[in-house]
What we know:
Blueprint: H1 6-16, H2 21-67, H3 71-89, E1 97-103, E2 115-125, H4 135-138, E3 140-150
Antiparallel strand pairs: 1-2, 2-3
Helix pairs in contact: 2-3
Amino acid sequence: MRRSNRWSSRLRRAATSDEGSAALEFITVGLLLLVPLVYLIVALGQIQGQSLGAEAGARHVARAISTAPDAATATARADAVLRSIVDEYGIDAETVELSLSCRPAGSVCPEAGATVVVTIATRVSLPLVPAVLGLDALASVPVEASAAQKVSRFWGAE
């Protein structure tokens, strides 16, 4: 039979006892997993919102141009639609780039019977990234959307 003293029995009990540590482990692991998951959800939500805004902007600008009676009205409508989309979806107006082209190639844009292709490109800044040392420019996701709309063959006719 082995002799035990009170110090060795206390050490043995302390080494095998898990009393009180489960709550601490749960909180620690929970925070380590939950914080990145919440950040990922917020970041993906922002990217999704901006991509929906870019897609809606391209579609509505293409429609506004193709349904306008002339080039001056088309430009005014496109500008108004783009401002509205930027405000509604919270897109940074400085990062929005709009390009317009017509098919068939070489035609005047917009022109009766042509297909107007509108492309909107922007960048989505990730949340909680400071604007220090250009980190905000590095931690951004490019978003681009295109839409095509056929212009009426009677476009521009008086």
